[in-house]
Write a structure and sequence with these properties.
Blueprint lengths: L4 H4 L21 E5 L4 H4 L2 H4 L5 E5 L9 H14 L6 E5 L8 H12 L5 E4 L5 H17 L7 E6 L2 H5 L1 H5 L5 E6 L1 H8 L14 E3 L12 E3 L4 H13 L3 E4 L8 H14 L3 E4 L3 H10 L3 H13 L7 E3 L2 E3 L1 H20 L1 H7 L3
Bound molecules: glyoxylic acid (GLV) and magnesium ion (MG).
The site of magnesium ion has 7 residues, from α9.
Length: 350
């Protein structure tokens, strides 16, 4: 059963703000995770705000059970002490069956509801999880006179969630997007890997044997996450949401991190999580399109001002469809140029 279209956009509590009809346009190349129970990390948030697109206070996994309240309190202080400007402020709350989540939501909305852009909801299994948080947020927004809706970002990290990904994406106008969580997903699915994202040396396709050549058979590593990422991108983009790759756990392997992020970027994702400062630069590089691609996209748009017909550019056929592809890149480049003068200069869009 789904709601009628007019009911879908109605606030879920009297006095709650109107849901967004369109996603707010924001640059979100990296969602940078901060552990708010660690004082010396929180002390550095001021300088982080200018370096990242989103600062996320993590209250869930990686925060020890006896530090959950300290993390919640640290997040509130961090939110109150800083002005975030165009940098997003997000929080990852504890999962819905945990003993901490109710206080997470009540405290966050009550204390900093007007500063919080997005709540990241872990281990979402189906639309029912989104509906619960949607209703609760509306009640709390009304109680605390929050003026704009706090969005929900689901982590796709259970087998059940992947099965229900389309219904999750369309569960509420409060949905911002989704991130792939490879660690929990691997566990939930019974995958036999201890890695957080990336490839696996044993997930291979073996080249055909050629006994006559004597050359050992080559094995080609495949992408363990391809199916899920593609499924999530389709669910999100068809619903007007943004898709993100989540964590990459091996901080000692920047090349593999870059490759994972780049696959996500090419597949349609807007950004990824950064868990370590060294990953911030990688995400900025990967999720900002290369200057030559942007230049080519701008040439296509210029050659086809009304977006119809067919032209040849450098021997490559362009038509209405490639115009749309070019527009995706050009729109992203313009958004980035508006935020970052260095990129504006690089793209010739200053
Ligand atoms: C992220 O939360 C993950 O489980 O990968
Ligand atoms: Mg997880």
């Amino acid at each position: 059963m789904t709601k009628t279209p007019h009911a879908f956009f109605r606030p879920l509590a009297i006095g709650a703000p109107e849901p967004f009809r369109e996603q707010p346009t924001r640059v979100e190349r990296m969602i940078h995770f901060v552990p708010p129970h660690i004082e010396k990390v929180v002390a550095k948030v001021g300088s982080l705000i200018d370096q990242v697109d989103v600062v996320l206070g993590n209250l869930e996994d990686a925060i020890p059970a006896d530090q959950k309240e300290a993390a919640r309190g640290g997040f509130v202080r961090m939110a109150k002490d800083h002005t975030f400007g165009s940098t997003g402020l997000w929080a990852r709350i504890n999962c819905l069956n945990s003993p901490w989540v109710l206080n997470d939501v009540m405290t966050l909305v009550g204390e900093v509801g007007d500063k919080l852009d997005v709540i990241m909801l872990p281990k979402v299994e189906g639309p029912w999880d989104v509906h619960y948080l949607d209703q609760l947020l509306a009640q709390l927004e009304a109680r605390h006179s929050v003026s704009r809706p706090i969005q929900i970002h689901a982590i796709l990290e259970t087998a059940e969630g992947v099965k229900n990904v389309d219904a999750i994406a369309t569960a509420s106008p409060r949905m911002h997007g989704m991130s792939l969580g490879p660690a929990d997903l691997a566990a939930s699915r019974g995958m036999k890997t201890t890695r957080v994202g990336g490839g696996h040396p044993d997930y291979l396709v073996l080249a055909d044997a050629d006994e006559t050549s004597g050359i050992p058979r080559a094995g080609f590593q495949q992408d363990l996450w391809h199916y899920t990422l593609a499924k999530m991108v389709d669910a999100c983009l068809s619903a007007g949401l943004k898709a993100f790759y989540g964590p990459f756990g091996d901080f000692s392997d920047p090349d593999a991190c870059r490759a994972q992020f780049r696959n996500a970027f090419l597949m349609g994702c807007a950004g990824a999580w950064t868990l370590h400062p060294s990953q911030i630069g990688i995400a900025r590089e990967v999720f900002s399109p290369p200057a030559d691609e942007v230049a080519f996209a701008l040439r296509i748009l210029e050659a086809m001002p009304d977006g119809t017909g067919a032209v040849m550019i450098d021997g490559k056929m362009q038509d209405d469809a490639t115009w749309k592809q070019a527009k995706v890149l050009a729109d992203l480049a313009r958004q980035l140029a508006a935020k970052d003068p260095e990129l504006a200069a690089l793209y010739g869009l200053s």
